[in-house]
Design goal:
Layout (H helix, E strand, L loop, with lengths): L1 H16 L3 H5 L3 E6 L9 H8 L13 E5 L4 H11 L3 H13 L7 E3 L2 H10 L3 E6 L7 E6 L2
Parallel strand pairs: 2-3, 2-4
Antiparallel strand pairs: 1-4, 1-5
Length: 146
Amino acid sequence: MRKFFKTKTITAVLLMLTPLAPCASFAELVVIANRDLPISSLTQEEIYRIYLGKTKFLSNGVKVIPVDQQSGSPSRDKFYSDVIKKSDTEIKSYWSRVIFTGQGYPPIQESDDKAVRDLVAKNPNCMGYVDKSVVDGSVKIVYTAP
């Protein structure tokens, strides 16, 4: 009888932890740029300013186009919490204000990591964030999230 309860307790604990499994398997988030974009790295502050539409140009004067992911994607959640330091609700509220006041528009959105990588690879002024596992020779890493 005692073994039965012990097994049930272990099973219950494992079932409670199952929703956390996708977070644990997330590798490493990186910001990527087109190989022709004349930068080798970006700071967290530069990325913050680009993704919040506060600047459209790099320090060397080159225009940059940020690529976002759809709300709810694991990469987007990690990017905004770890790099931008804002929740999804805060980001939505921020862009609602910016759009309403006519001060700008949010970054273009792609569906997932591979779609972001492919768009960045094809457009010389683009940058985006992805799980490091999808990075290949078509793009370059300019920032690694903490």
